[in-house]
Amino acid sequence: MIYAAMTFWLLVIVLTAWGVHRLWSGMVKPKVFNAILLPGTLVAQLGQVLGLLVTGATVTNTTLFKDDDSGDPETTPNPQSRIPVVGPVIIGMLPVMACAIAIYFAALHLGTAILPTVTVQAVGPELPTTMAGAWQLLRDQISLAESLVTAARVADYANWHTWAFLYLLICLSVRTAPFPGNLKGSLGAIVVLGVIAAAVASMFAVEDPRIIDAWSVLNLTVAALLVLLMASLFVRGVVGLVQVLRNDAS
Fold it and tell me: pTM score, two decimals?
């Protein structure tokens, strides 16, 4: 069950990050938005390049910030790994894992003023198996988002660590979204990785303790993305409403 839960939460993170990225790219010039995300883009790009190298694929057309109106990062199109099955999984997962590791170290060194006040741990190794449990899971996510907002409100903003941590948390969380054209590959990689990990654990009756230790990073990432998604939907709704009213008035 723990690997099924890990797969589920990774899918939630990637899809939520992708949604946040799409929403803001539709409201702000993509070039400006992608420029803001440069630290996260750098980490994700390094993760993908590492994945290409370790699987024997050729690195081509890798650009951190394209010189056009989109400002999108450019990645190697259709990378051909020399390792069947596992190679594409590594290439698809390493950008996400790189961002997760960066979030962990940012929280460890910069987030000590905020993390202790994020009291809700709504991301766990167990998934609900009943309808009541599913509704409770949704309520827990609202509580998780509220806990992070509360922690951010009472943080000491006179300390530069607070600003740096929140900025990096936003950049790295949103950059767990797949690069353009890689959404299906990233989602497939997460599912395949979950199946392989579950099969290995079942065959050898072992569970990697690092999986258990990763829940704190997942909890923080999900919290940040939920807050960003709710804020993005609210802003997008307000912008859309203003546009409708303006068109009706004219």
Answer: 0.87
SS3 119: coil
DSSP 66: -
CA distances from 50 to 10, 57, 90, 111, 237 (A): 20, 10, 9, 27, 39
DSSP state of 74: B
User: Which residues touch 157 (CB under 8 Å, ≥6 apart)?
Assistant: 163
d(CA 100, CA 40): 10
Write out pLDDT tens, residues 188-212. 878 887 777 777 666 655 556 656 6
Q: Are 48 and 16 in contact (CB under 8 A)?
A: no
CA dihedral 198, 142, 220, 156 (to 10 degrees): -170
Per-residue pLDDT at 71 exceeds 90: no
Q: What are phi and psi of 128, to 5 degrees?
A: -65, 145
Radius of gyration in angstroms for the set of CA atoms belonging to the chain, rounded to a whole number? 19
Domain boundaries, the chain: 2-249
The 8-class DSSP code of residue 71 comes to -
Q: Is 91 helix (H, G, I), strand (E, B) or coil?
A: helix
Q: How far apart are the first and last CA of the chain?
A: 57
Distance CA 67, CA 78 (A): 22
Are 173 and 17 in contact, with CB atoms under 8 Å apart? yes
Distance of alpha carbon 171 from alpha carbon 186, whole angstroms: 19
Q: What are phi and psi of 121, to 5 degrees?
A: -115, 80
What is residue 117's DSSP assignment?
Answer: G
